[in-house]
Design a protein that fits this description.
Blueprint (H helix, E strand, L loop, with lengths): L3 E4 L2 H9 L1 H5 L10 H6 L4 E6 L2 E10 L4 E9 L8 H15 L4 E7 L3 H9 L3 E5 L9 E7 L5
The chain binds coenzyme A.
Length: 150
């Protein structure tokens, strides 16, 4: 079986938390994994799986102003560099467009050079926004228009 991308089930949510270091390394981001997102925005919270289990996920939602906001995207350590992150974004973009999104948005820390390179590779514009996460806490903010054609 090849990789299939589908809405996340509760079991998938718990699986990615159990495998947290394989997605995020030393970074402790469990608290950002909100079950409410999976329950309330199920059609834009997606996992990629094959016979080896869940290989990646994207959790996001569509805002009232038509922005498909990606809260978390990650691929498992054994799936990196295979195009899976791009496929997850394409699947998210399709789901977001069906809910009226006209652009995509994501944020990451200014130190996350891998994420910045990834988002640039898939066509996002980036801006460093001072104080985005509170006083003195700048974030890299990514925007790109839809449709997501590559
Ligand atoms: C960022 C991440 C999701 C990328 O996933 P991936 O499956 O490796 O990405 P892909 O294989 O689809 O790569 C797509 C493009 O991004 C580029 N890219 C991906 N990661 C990169 C990196 N660390 N450095 C430079 N370029 C990178 C690829 O070269 C590719 O470019 P190309 O299509 O022009 O050849 C993955 O590395 C990850 O899970 N990182 C940890 C979690 C994280 O930081 N998530 C993002 C913040 S929310």
């Amino acid at each position: 079986m090849g990789i299939q991308i589908a809405p996340a089930a509760m079991a998938d949510f718990h699986q990615v938390l159990a495998d947290h270091p394989r997605y995020w390394g030393e970074r402790a981001l469990r608290a950002l994994h909100l079950l409410a997102l999976v329950r309330e925005f199920g059609s834009t919270c997606l996992v990629a799986r094959d016979e080896g289990g869940v290989r990646g996920y994207v959790f996001g939602f569509v805002t009232p102003n038509g922005t498909g906001y990606v809260h978390l995207i990650a691929t498992r350590d054994d799936a990196r560099g295979t195009g899976l992150g791009r496929r997850l974004y394409a699947a998210f973009a399709g789901a977001a467009e069906r809910h009226g999104a006209r652009q995509l948005k994501a944020i990451t820390s200014t130190e996350n050079t891998g994420s910045i390179a990834f988002h640039r590779s898939i066509g996002f514009d980036m801006e460093i926004v001072d104080d985005y996460n509170g006083p003195g806490r700048a974030m890299a903010v990514f925007i790109r228009a839809l449709p997501f054609d590559s």
